[in-house]
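Re: zinc ion structure - here you go.
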Amino acid sequence: MKRTDKLLFLQPVLKDMLWGGTRLSEFGYDLPTGTVGECWGISAHPHGDCIVKNGPYRGMPLSRLYEEHRELFGNVKSDRFPLLVKIIDAKQDLSVQVHPDDEYAREHENGSLGKTECWYVLDCAADATIIIGHHAKSKAEAERMVRKGRFSEFLREIPVHKGDFFLIEPGVVHSIKGGTLILETQENSDVTYRFYDYDRVRNGVKRELHIDKSLDVITCPFKESKTKPVIKRIGASEVETLVSIPDFTVDRISVNGSVTLDSGSEFVNLSVTEGEGAIDGIPIRKGTHLIVPFGYGAYELSGNMEVFRSTVPEK
Ligand code: ZN
């Protein structure tokens, strides 16, 4: 077996969403309809389990590979594949939501995990905004504003720009608004409490809201998660660490020429979001998602590309 046969190239799962657009076609994906909202590029979630496209495990879903060949994933303790990497094309506004922390989810959602997520803005319209946090000073004030439907006063809506990065911790109210293309890295959990959907009606019905649970888990007052990117230059290339917390580390790698990186003590998720090039001589391009398995060692990225890397720190 060639060494590069060990790399796990994944078939992304495309999600049809009413708020979606057509921009995911720019990543080389065939869109089944005109309103694809999400590409789950690296996912072992039951709602979208990526299939391995090459090598000895070709045809196997990532969840099964994680179950049966844990040696490919190093020392990760999690009982399920820990991360989920998505590209989100929001043509219209997504509903306003909040996620519980692990403790609340364990108690109220059958032992599920809570969810921390982060967003990197790949592109957006000139006047695009995003919702992160709220203006209520206490839980009682949040409750009053939400129950009375005073959402424009309650929600903290801020301008957004290409290249912005946001860490969304459990308890933080958030919503991606229309005109935004985002790379999202999150814990592999789907526990979401939707508490406002702009009173939209779809096929004659409004979507279900979870007001009580949302108010339970909302952090009051809102406190912004400040992250400080750290940039490391390697030749003409650049590795920018956007966030490093116990749940995940996310780096944005600007490949210019060639850069050799070490896969370290864990497995590595890679998603190409711009340009084209190669990994150890195997061609990759905008829209490619792959996993460098545990123990692979050093890998060389070459070409002109933007690549997002996520890893789970050893616990
Ligand atoms: Zn979310």
